[in-house]
């Protein structure tokens, strides 16, 4: 009875669409979206025949691993900073909240605006500082654009992650540090030997939530490059959208969505297993 | 345990009550009385919604008992919206869109003759009417049109020492270099996803190329198209265009032209209203025919958008749809939309209204004249939707890293798959 | 020690600056007059401070910013309440009882967390059609509540688990009854967790874009996220209004956040430790 409403909500709003999607991936769908009967695995074979797919998969891997790793490392630093006492700490915490409170879409749009080749303030600033001689078209070259978008993805992931880690830091009792100091542990050894291991549960949670969010992230790439030029900055999430709405192959897109889910499930399970194994050996 | 249940039930009903009260004012869409229709209009700019709201009000007061439920959808969201509507059988009664042929192929839409009076049907300019047919029958109702001309900044031309707008590709290249030396962007070349298909077609058809061969079969990989891309690639490599045409959208170059940073580009009729006037109404620019390879003929690219009427179950919506469409196509109403949005008319009567009383007639005249022998995108081919998507994604890469022949080959494959 | 504090302060303020800079640029852009927006190279500050941009957005008919604000508030608020209403009992029960199916339930929650609505758009839309919920606030509320439920359950579950059972039992003995113990002892103690779940869900629903885009279409049921990109179309671009409206939508949430920031950290503490 206690679980009923929650289960019902999840079953109707999440599981139903999933089943609907799996069904679509096995259906032939015309360009107007009319269903034309059972397709077998044709949508899947079509998908795997796409020349752009390997690049998209590889990029998704770089995107997820890169963004999550950088986010976690920077957040550790930020959490440490926010946990120390200094004047204005509260204001700094509030500033950190702003990107979290803003819609990712709007944050992506302002970054696109600032990085614009013609009227972007980033180019102006870097040229005034003497770093650049001529404007750089940040979002036009695939490598540069991907790096810029990963930067934005890190930017929007930092607040939540930092707060989770900050919460973790605050749950470590002060006595633990006292004991360490008595034992003569220096600050570095104290951090590596005590703080990090105790922070581990928070790190695991932050990592999993970030992996899921970053993997599924759509608005950043969509607003900034639309996955272009060509498919050169697409990840699986934007690619499946483009398959449906630009290439007009809804069935193939549904197949991509199924593959996408398989991937994220695999990533999270592998991650959890690794974490658990380490726990067992530790 | 009972008490928990009560508490839970209380909480749930609270939540449901909260969610329930949102429905209140919502109007019922798709009435079954055959007098209520749903119209999905595309948003051209901020004035679109106001125009339709006023028109519908007039229509409803002139036809008591009839209702039109309006939805205005951004162009950028239109494709996905339309697809979800069709896929889930939630089509509006009337849709304002830029494609119609795959609806016609799948038997989803009414024939034109069934939803407008013969008078309206005869009022469409033959050129547009012909482009609204699928397998010999007219399904699309021409709505607005736009034409492309070559825009050039006269002040920049004077500074670069160029006397008249270029007519051949060689002149375009030479002038672009001069403009670059004068410190501006020579040629605005938008091959980013927004409208790459139009930009490509403009250059290709003025080189004797295009989407199909003489017999009407897809010939995207033909030599003339490869040459076109090779030429554009050279302009890009010589840096006489704006940087990275493959990711530059049309509106980016229109904006920079309005800012006086670009010497010349293929412009569209609505550029004055949407881009130039808001920024600098005094910009000193001229409008010329689109340059061609050898300078002998100058074709323009025509674009038209349509209205289509979807079939609904028993066909009970037909009478109301017809009433509304006939109302819209009255010459004053149609003319007002065209002039509000800065487009060109698709009907004779509205065209006459516009050219007789508009002080803007001088600006629009070259576009109207050019339309008489315009070429269009093959929107009447059901495979066009897929080709259009593929071109938007891929064509730009041919002037950057990719190989023109290979890029065109990929798109040709998409076209053949769609047939 | 003084040096360390000075260093920390400097770094802290730099970090704050870095996080605020894009939104400062948003504000500056929103205050520029039209002809200046696309100037190349750009100016840092507006030549004329066009404060009227902020008043003008309220008078536009398409989109109607005020209506969108109210609608967004309603959808996000109701989705948050719904998620909490179904999430609280589920979290409490799984934290207090071990029962057959508990593992299955938690697995279901975890798997749900892995789905993003973006990947399920077509399925969601088809379902909304079957339920006759397209273009309704209810549809949006249900979807938003469902996709944020996992986080609520997870954080609340951890929080309830951290409250000693003895406290609750002591309250029973005092004669408050089970329900009384729940409302008078457990819930107040769990408040930071509730606040965290509430804020998280509200923000996610407030900022949700793709589902709103897909399942609602009429202009009187337009969320702010759906309204905002409409300022920039292929035929007309009004970045100043886009950013002005963005700021209008960001400010209330930041204020809400600032009020509950303290709770947030302790709410996440339990989640982090137990998760």
Verbal overview:
The complex is a heterotrimer of chains A (282), B (419) and C (275). By secondary structure, chain A is mostly helical. Chain A has a domain at 53-233: Orthogonal Bundle (MetI-like fold). Chain A is 74% helix and 2% strand. Chain A contains twelve helices and two strands. The mean pLDDT of chain A is 86. Chain B has 419 residues and is an alpha/beta fold. Chain B folds into two domains: 36-145 and 303-376, D-Maltodextrin-Binding Protein, domain 2; 147-302 and 379-418, Periplasmic binding protein-like II (D-Maltodextrin-Binding Protein, domain 2). Chain B has 19 helices and eleven strands. In chain B, the strands form two sheets. In chain B, strands 1, 2, 3, 6, 7, 8, 9, 10 and 11 form a nine-stranded mixed sheet that branches. Chain B has a two-stranded antiparallel sheet with strand order 4-5. In chain B, a hairpin with a 2-residue loop joins β4 (133-134) and β5 (137-138). In chain B, α8 crosses α9 (169-181). With 275 residues, chain C is mainly α. Chain C has one domain (61-274): MetI-like fold, CATH 1.10.3720.10. Chain C is built from eleven helices and no strands. In chain C, α8 (191-207) packs antiparallel against α11. The model of chain C has no long low-confidence stretch (mean pLDDT 84). The chains are: A mainly alpha (282), B alpha/beta (419), C mainly alpha (275). Chains A and C meet through α1, α3, α4, α5 and α6 of A and α1, α3, α4, α5 and α6 of C.
The chain-level structural class of chain B is: alpha/beta
User: How many whole angstroms does the radius of gyration of chain B measure?
Assistant: 24 Å
Shape call of chain B? globular
How many domain regions of chain C?
1
The global form of chain C is: globular
First-last Cα distance of chain C? 36 Å
Oligomer: heterotrimer
In total, how many beta strands of chain C?
Answer: 0
- Average pLDDT value of chain B? 86
Please indicate the percent range of residues of chain B in DSSP E strands (runs of 2 or more). Answer: 15-25%
SSE order of chain B, one letter for each helix or strand: HEHEHEHHHHEEEHHEHHHEHEEHHHHEHH
CATH C-level label of the largest domain in chain B = Alpha Beta
Low-confidence stretches of chain C: none
How does CATH name the architecture of chain C? Orthogonal Bundle
């Amino acid at each position: 009875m206690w679980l009923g409403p929650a289960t019902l909500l999840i079953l109707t709003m999440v599981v139903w669409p999933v089943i609907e999607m799996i069904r679509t991936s096995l259906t032939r769908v015309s360009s107007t979206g009319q269903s034309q009967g059972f397709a077998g695995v044709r949508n899947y074979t079509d998908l795997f025949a796409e020349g752009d797919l390997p690049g998209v998969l590889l990029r998704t891997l770089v995107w997820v691993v890169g963004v999550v790793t950088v986010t976690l490392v920077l957040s550790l630093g930020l959490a440490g900073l926010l946990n120390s006492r200094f004047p204005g700490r509260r204001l700094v915490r509030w500033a950190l909240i702003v990107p979290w409170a803003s819609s990712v879409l709007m944050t992506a749009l302002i970054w696109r605006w600032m990085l614009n080749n013609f009227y972007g303030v980033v180019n102006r600033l870097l040229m005034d500082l003497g770093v650049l001689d001529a404007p750089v078209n940040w979002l036009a070259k695939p490598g540069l654009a991907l790096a810029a978008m990963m930067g934005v993805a890190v930017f929007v992931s930092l607040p939540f992650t930092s707060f989770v880690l900050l919460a973790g830091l605050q749950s470590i009792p002060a006595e633990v540090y006292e004991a360490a100091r008595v034992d003569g542990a220096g600050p570095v050894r104290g951090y590596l030997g005590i703080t990090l291991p105790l922070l581990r549960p928070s790190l695991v949670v932050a990592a999993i939530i970030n992996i899921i969010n970053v993997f599924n992230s759509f608005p950043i790439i969509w607003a900034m490059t639309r996955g272009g030029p060509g498919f050169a900055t697409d990840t699986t999430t934007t690619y499946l959208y483009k398959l449906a709405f630009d290439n007009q192959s809804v069935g193939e897109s549904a197949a991509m969505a199924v593959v996408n889910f398989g991937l994220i499930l695999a990533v999270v399970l592998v991650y959890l297993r690794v974490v658990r194994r380490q726990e067992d050996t530790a | 345990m009972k008490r928990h249940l009560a508490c839970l039930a209380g909480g749930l009903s609270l939540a449901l009550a909260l969610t329930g009260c949102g429905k209140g004012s919502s109007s019922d869409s798709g009435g079954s009385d055959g007098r209520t229709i749903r119209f999905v209009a595309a948003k051209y700019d901020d004035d679109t919604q106001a125009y339709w709201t006023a028109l519908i009000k007039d229509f409803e007061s002139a036809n008591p008992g009839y209702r039109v439920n309006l939805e205005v959808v951004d162009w950028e969201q239109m494709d996905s919206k339309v697809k979800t509507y069709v896929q889930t059988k939630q089509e509006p009664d009337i849709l304002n869109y830029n494609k119609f042929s795959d609806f016609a192929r799948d038997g989803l839409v009414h024939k034109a003759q069934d939803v407008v009076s013969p008078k309206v049907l005869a009022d469409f300019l033959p050129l547009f009417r012909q482009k609204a047919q699928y397998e010999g029958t007219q399904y699309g109702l021409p709505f607005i049109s736009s034409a492309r001309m070559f825009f050039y900044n006269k002040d920049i031309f004077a500074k670069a020492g160029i006397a008249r707008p270029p007519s051949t590709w060689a002149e375009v290249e030479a002038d672009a270099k001069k403009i670059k030396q004068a410190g501006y962007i020579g040629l605005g070349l938008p091959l980013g996803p927004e409208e790459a298909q139009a930009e490509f077609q403009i250059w290709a058809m003025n080189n004797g190329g295009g989407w199909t061969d003489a017999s009407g079969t897809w010939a995207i990989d033909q030599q003339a198209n490869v040459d076109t891309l090779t030429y554009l690639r050279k302009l890009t490599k010589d840096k006489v265009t704006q940087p990275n045409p493959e990711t530059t959208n049309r509106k980016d170059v229109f904006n920079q032209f309005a800012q006086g940073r670009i010497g010349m580009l293929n412009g569209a009729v609505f550029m004055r209203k949407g881009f130039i006037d808001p920024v600098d109404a005094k910009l000193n620019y001229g409008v010329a025919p689109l340059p061609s390879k050898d300078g002998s003929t100058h074709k323009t690219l025509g674009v038209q958008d349509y209205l289509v009427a979807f079939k609904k179950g028993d066909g009970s919506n037909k009478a109301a749809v017809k009433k509304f469409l006939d109302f819209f196509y009255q010459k004053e109403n149609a003319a007002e939309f065209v002039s509000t949005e800065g487009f060109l008319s698709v009907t004779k009567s509205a065209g006459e209204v516009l050219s007789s009383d508009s002080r803007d007639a001088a600006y629009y005249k070259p576009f109207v004249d050019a339309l008489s022998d315009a070429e269009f995108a093959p929107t009447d081919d059901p495979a066009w939707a897929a080709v259009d998507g593929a071109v938007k994604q891929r064509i730009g890469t041919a002037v950057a890293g990719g190989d023109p022949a290979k890029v065109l080959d990929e798109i040709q494959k998409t076209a053949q798959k769609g047939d | 020690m003084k040096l360390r504090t000075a260093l920390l302060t400097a770094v802290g303020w730099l970090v704050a600056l870095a996080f605020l800079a894009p939104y400062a640029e948003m504000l500056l852009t929103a205050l520029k007059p039209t002809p200046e927006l696309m100037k190349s190279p750009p100016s840092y500050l507006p030549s004329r401070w066009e404060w009227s941009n902020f008043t003008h957005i309220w008078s536009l008919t398409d989109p109607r910013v005020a209506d969108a604000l109210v609608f967004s508030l309603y959808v996000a608020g109701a989705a948050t309440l719904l998620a909490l209403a179904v999430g609280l009992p589920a979290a409490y029960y799984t934290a207090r009882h071990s029962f057959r199916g508990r593992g299955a339930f938690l697995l279901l929650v975890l798997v749900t967390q892995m789905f993003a609505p973006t990947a399920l758009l077509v399925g969601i839309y088809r379902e909304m059609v079957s339920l006759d919920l397209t273009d309704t606030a209810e549809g949006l509320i249900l979807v938003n509540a469902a996709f944020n439920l996992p986080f609520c359950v997870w954080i609340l579950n951890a929080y309830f688990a951290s409250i000693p059972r003895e406290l609750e039992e002591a309250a029973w003995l005092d004669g408050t009854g089970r329900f009384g113990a729940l409302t008078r002892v457990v819930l107040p103690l769990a408040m930071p967790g509730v606040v965290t779940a509430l804020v998280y869900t509200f923000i996610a629903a407030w900022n949700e874009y793709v589902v709103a885009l897909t399942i609602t279409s009429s202009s009187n049921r337009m969320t702010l996220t759906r309204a905002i990109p409409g300022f920039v179309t292929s035929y007309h671009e009004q970045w100043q209004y886009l950013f002005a409206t963005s700021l209008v939508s960001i400010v209330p949430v930041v204020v809400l956040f600032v009020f509950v920031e303290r709770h947030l950290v302790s709410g996440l503490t339990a989640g982090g430790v137990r998760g």
